[in-house]
Design brief:
Strand order of the largest sheet: 3-2-1-4
Helix content: 55-70%
Distance between the termini: 21 Å
Number of domains: 1
Structural class: alpha+beta
Number of helices: 8
Strand content: 5-15%
Radius of gyration: 21 Å
Number of strands: 4
């Protein structure tokens, strides 16, 4: 929760909106990224179709023999390089996204591999859980407002540079990566389609409830007496 502080420094009294503690935002970021990684692992293990970028990662991993996590990490770094001509600026959350997901997904996949062979219904439930968890995780790490993930930053950068609608740019990128990934042997299936259709509306539902408001850091003149400790509510945000 953001607080209003009143200070006087050799001049008129000023008020500042102090953002929610960085520790709270960082904790939400980390929880969101861990859950996001788990959701990826659930979908991969269910083997009913991966998220679009994971189709590409899995395809490259199968062709090269590298682990899924290593390929995911390498793709994230390459996507960040693409930010340079787009003049995108990474944040703490951007770096955390690359490292947490890249290094955590392989151990989680190894743990899931310890499960016995599951019937189709159980795998479908696992994929469904992964999709819902992914939406909540996205709301958590995006709502922390510490920087977009590499792939989101690529999309927004291209939207800004090309002037094309978000839906057009995002769909173009995801169709491209899915097509290449599928051609390389990545798993494209019913869960990929369900993810593409459902995750956007789910994120739109949860994101306003998970967004931590980060007000403008610029000071505003006090227009009247303000009590220290008053708070402002987070504003709803869309994806």
């Amino acid at each position: 929760m953001d607080r209003i502080a009143i200070v006087r420094v050799n001049g008129p009294m000023r008020t500042f909106l102090v953002p929610a503690p960085v520790g709270r935002r960082s904790a939400q970021l980390v929880v969101g990224l861990v859950l996001y990684t788990l959701s990826m692992a659930l979908l991969v293990h269910a083997d009913l179709g991966n998220m679009p970028w994971d189709v590409l990662s899995q395809g490259i991993a199968r062709r090269t023999g590298a682990s899924f996590g290593t390929v995911t990490l390498a793709i994230s770094v390459l996507v960040l390089v693409c930010w340079i001509p787009l003049r995108q600026r990474p944040g703490v959350g951007t770096v955390a996204n690359v490292l947490v997901i890249g290094f955590l997904v392989d151990p989680l996949l190894d743990l899931l591999d310890l499960l016995p062979d599951l019937p189709w219904a159980a795998r479908a439930a696992m994929a469904g859980l992964g999709i819902v968890m992914n939406a909540v995780a996205t709301g958590l790490y995006v709502g922390a407002q510490l920087g977009p993930g590499p792939r989101d930053g690529l999309m927004t950068g291209l939207v800004r540079r090309t002037g094309r609608p978000v839906a057009v740019v995002r769909t173009t990128i995801e169709v491209l990566v899915v097509s290449v990934g599928w051609a390389l042997g990545g798993r494209l299936g019913i869960a990929t389609v369900v993810y593409a259709v459902c995750v956007g509306p789910l994120v739109h539902l949860v994101l306003p409830r998970l967004t931590i408001a980060v007000p403008d850091a610029a000071p505003a003149r006090a227009s009247g007496r303000v009590s220290a400790g008053a708070s402002s509510s987070p504003s709803p945000a869309g994806r």
